[in-house]
């Protein structure tokens, strides 16, 4: 299966709903897949790399916050391009002055951030720390699902609870983790694209 087929599968309603425990991974894959093309689209409008980056992050942030409405989007790629175009125009209207100094400072700050803060091991520690903040049962279910790769049915049998209860714990766990990790996920995905090319 090539990259295009994989992304097509990721945005299918049935796949997304049936794999909610993997929604963080799915979202990150979608972000990385579309970023470069969407960035160029935004750049044509705002003519400023910093603003173009901000446009893409804002669009995906809103998509993440409205994940429960994901299945209502009939043509996902067209939706993304339309959202980026609209957001770019909004940024252009609101941006009265553009400072090259600010742009250079921003890029320098991102470089320092990568070197001093977003090292791989530290990122892993932050994710692990966020997982440890989960309520006891949520944490147990989450670790069995994500770390041990167990299916909901098997987890339910092991813990002597229903599959529906397992699903409920996973939904609750993901909501909590999103609050801790959303900004980090977006930033890491973007920086992986920038510094990986």
UniProtKB/TrEMBL annotation:
<dbReference type="InterPro" id="IPR039425">
    <property type="entry name" value="RNA_pol_sigma-70-like"/>
</dbReference>
<dbReference type="Pfam" id="PF04542">
    <property type="entry name" value="Sigma70_r2"/>
</dbReference>
<feature type="domain" description="RNA polymerase sigma-70 region 2">
    <location>
        <begin position="30"/>
        <end position="96"/>
    </location>
</feature>
<dbReference type="GO" id="GO:0006352">
    <property type="term" value="P:DNA-templated transcription initiation"/>
</dbReference>
<dbReference type="GO" id="GO:0016987">
    <property type="term" value="F:sigma factor activity"/>
</dbReference>
<dbReference type="GO" id="GO:0003677">
    <property type="term" value="F:DNA binding"/>
</dbReference>
<dbReference type="Pfam" id="PF08281">
    <property type="entry name" value="Sigma70_r4_2"/>
</dbReference>
<feature type="domain" description="RNA polymerase sigma factor 70 region 4 type 2">
    <location>
        <begin position="125"/>
        <end position="176"/>
    </location>
</feature>
<dbReference type="InterPro" id="IPR014327">
    <property type="entry name" value="RNA_pol_sigma70_bacteroid"/>
</dbReference>
<dbReference type="InterPro" id="IPR013324">
    <property type="entry name" value="RNA_pol_sigma_r3/r4-like"/>
</dbReference>
<dbReference type="InterPro" id="IPR014284">
    <property type="entry name" value="RNA_pol_sigma-70_dom"/>
</dbReference>
<keyword id="KW-0805">Transcription regulation</keyword>
<comment type="similarity">
    <text>Belongs to the sigma-70 factor family. ECF subfamily.</text>
</comment>
<dbReference type="InterPro" id="IPR013249">
    <property type="entry name" value="RNA_pol_sigma70_r4_t2"/>
</dbReference>
<protein>
    <submittedName>
        <fullName>RNA polymerase sigma-70 factor, ECF subfamily</fullName>
    </submittedName>
</protein>
<keyword id="KW-0804">Transcription</keyword>
<dbReference type="InterPro" id="IPR007627">
    <property type="entry name" value="RNA_pol_sigma70_r2"/>
</dbReference>
<keyword id="KW-0731">Sigma factor</keyword>
<dbReference type="InterPro" id="IPR013325">
    <property type="entry name" value="RNA_pol_sigma_r2"/>
</dbReference>
<dbReference type="InterPro" id="IPR036388">
    <property type="entry name" value="WH-like_DNA-bd_sf"/>
</dbReference>
């Amino acid at each position: 299966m090539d990259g295009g087929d994989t992304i097509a599968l990721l945005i299918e309603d049935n796949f997304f709903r049936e794999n909610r425990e993997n929604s963080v991974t799915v979202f990150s894959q979608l972000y990385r897949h579309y970023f470069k093309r969407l960035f160029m689209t935004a750049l044509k409008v705002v003519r400023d790399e910093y603003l173009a980056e901000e446009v893409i992050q804002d669009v995906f942030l809103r998509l993440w916050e409205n994940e429960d409405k994901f299945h209502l989007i009939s043509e996902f790629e067209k939706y993304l391009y339309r959202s980026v175009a609209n957001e770019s125009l909004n940024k252009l209207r609101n941006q009265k002055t553009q400072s090259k100094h600010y742009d250079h400072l921003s890029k320098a700050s991102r470089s320092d951030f990568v070197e001093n803060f977003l090292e791989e091991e530290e990122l892993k520690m932050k994710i692990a720390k966020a997982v440890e903040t989960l309520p006891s049962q949520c944490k147990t279910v989450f670790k069995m699902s994500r770390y041990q790769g167990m299916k909901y049915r098997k987890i339910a049998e092991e813990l002597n609870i229903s599959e529906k209860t397992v699903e409920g714990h996973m939904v609750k766990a993901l909501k909590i983790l999103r609050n801790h990790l959303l900004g980090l996920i977006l930033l890491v995905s973007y920086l992986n694209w920038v510094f990986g090319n």
